[in-house]
Structures are given as structure tokens and as C-alpha cells.
Task: inverse folding
């Protein structure tokens, strides 16, 4: 008798406890997907200081502290002013005497005093280099003692002075008077001083007072600041006992309407 019923086919644990399918930890605990810190904590985007705290855009002092527009405060020495302005100052001879003037246009227009031309219509103009020209009186302003003379010439390359602004004058500013003192021929006479005051006459007209010499013959010549700009036209000097250093110039802004009406610009 063969007892074949003892073969325990029901307890074949290999089929019931197939742990390889139930405890496949390799599929459930795939930490590489859950703890991928390189994607969740991408600090380069959250804490990118080069983009949020870019100081070159916020503190660019070279753009904020550039002073080229506020820096036309360039000044010259007196010797440089002499070299710059001397070619523009002319000697004027009329039937009544001699005085000075300053060329204000390359076409040869000269600004001077009305009392220098003394009612003449034709005058003689002498440049620094000795060249002589005839000049014709184009306009006058007797109230302000101003006149404009045109040099009779085809030249369009005369040296010209730069007109400044009398409004910006400050008492104590250094200035230079330029002209042919006493009508002397040859080199122009220069005298350095300061703006002593802004003085009004009996009519209420304001003049620039300076202690720089304004001798006879200087009339019509320019009063120049150390920027090389014409700020006035020398016109008269107060003479008397115990009086020194009281010359007067017409502010250049009083001449600009006459210049505009006569030659434009």
C-alpha cells in the first residue's frame, strides 16, 4: 500500500508567500523621484543676488555726478585773456578823435561808444596787426552811448570776441579793461581790476563800476571777465581830487538789442 496522500501540496509556500511581488521595495521607495532636491531647492533662482542686488544699476555715480553741463566755469589767466582778446580790439579814428571798439562778428561788425564816432558816418579802423580799413557807422544808441560800425571789406574771417552775460556778474569778480588808451597807436592797453559795484545814474540806468583803469581812448573797448567773455563796454571814468579807480562800463545786455536790430544773431 503506497501512502501517496502524505504529499502536502497545500503548503507550498513558494506560491502563497511570493514576497518578491508584495514587498518590491525597489518600486515603492524610489527615493530618487521624491527627494530630487536639485529640482525643489533650486537656489540659483530664489537666491540669485546678481539679479536682485545688481549695484551697477542702482549706484552708478559716474552718470549721476557728471558735471559737464555745470562746468563751463573754465577761467583763464590774465595773460591768456590778453592773447585771446587782443586781436578782436580795434582802434577807431573819427573826425573828432580816437577811441576803441571790439569786433563782434566775423563779417567785421564793431561795437563801440557813440561818443567815439562823434556823429561821423565814416571812420578808420586799425587792427592789432596794423591793417587799416574804412568803416561805416550802421547804428547808434545815444541813450546808452553805443554804436555799431561795419568794416568795409569782403573778408568773413575777422577775429571776433564772445559776448558774455552781465547778469551773472558778482561783485568782486576779476575783470580786464582793454583799449587804445589815450588813442595811442601800437599795442592795446590792458588793465586788471575787479567789479567794485553795480551803480545806477540819475536816470536809473545801471553801470558796472570797476577799479580797472578806463582811461581816455579806452572808451568803446571791452570789459572782459576771466572766461574771456565781453561783459561790458567801457564808457567813462570819474575824475576828480581824491578819486581813484572809478571806471564804468555799460552792461553787455544793454547792447544786445542794438546788435540784434542791426546785424541779427
Result:
Amino acid at each position: 500500500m503506497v501512502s501517496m496522500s502524505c504529499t502536502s501540496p497545500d503548503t507550498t509556500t513558494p506560491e502563497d508567500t511570493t514576497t518578491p511581488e508584495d514587498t518590491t521595495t525597489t518600486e515603492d521607495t524610489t527615493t530618487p523621484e521624491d527627494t530630487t532636491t536639485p529640482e525643489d531647492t533650486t537656489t540659483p533662482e530664489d537666491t540669485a543676488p546678481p539679479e536682485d542686488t545688481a549695484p551697477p544699476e542702482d549706484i552708478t555715480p559716474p552718470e549721476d555726478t557728471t558735471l559737464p553741463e555745470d562746468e563751463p566755469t573754465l577761467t583763464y589767466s590774465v595773460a591768456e585773456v590778453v592773447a585771446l582778446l587782443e586781436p578782436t580790439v580795434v582802434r577807431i579814428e573819427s573826425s573828432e578823435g580816437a577811441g576803441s571798439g571790439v569786433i563782434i562778428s566775423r563779417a567785421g561788425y564793431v561795437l563801440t561808444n557813440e561818443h567815439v564816432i562823434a556823429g561821423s558816418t565814416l571812420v578808420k579802423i586799425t587792427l592789432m596787426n596794423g591793417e587799416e580799413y574804412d568803416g561805416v557807422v550802421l547804428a547808434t544808441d545815444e541813450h546808452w552811448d553805443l554804436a555799431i560800425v561795419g568794416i568795409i571789406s569782403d573778408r568773413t574771417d575777422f577775429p571776433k570776441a564772445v559776448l558774455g552775460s552781465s547778469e551773472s556778474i558778482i561783485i568782486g569778480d576779476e575783470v580786464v579793461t582793454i583799449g587804445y588808451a589815450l588813442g595811442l597807436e601800437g599795442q592795446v592797453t590792458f588793465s586788471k581790476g575787479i567789479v567794485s559795484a553795480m551803480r545806477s545814474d540819475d536816470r536809473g540806468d545801471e553801470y558796472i563800476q570797476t577799479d580797472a583803469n578806463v582811461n581816455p581812448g579806452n572808451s568803446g573797448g571791452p570789459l572782459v571777465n576771466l572766461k574771456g567773455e565781453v561783459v561790458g563796454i567801457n564808457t567813462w571814468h570819474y575824475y576828480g581830487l581824491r578819486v581813484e579807480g572809478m571806471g564804468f562800463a555799460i552792461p553787455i545786455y544793454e547792447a544786445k538789442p542794438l546788435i540784434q536790430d542791426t546785424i541779427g544773431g
Remarks:
- The mean pLDDT is 80.
- The longest helix spans residues 252-263.
- The domain at 87-151 is CATH 2.40.10.10 (Thrombin, subunit H).
- DSSP finds twelve helices and 13 strands in the chain.
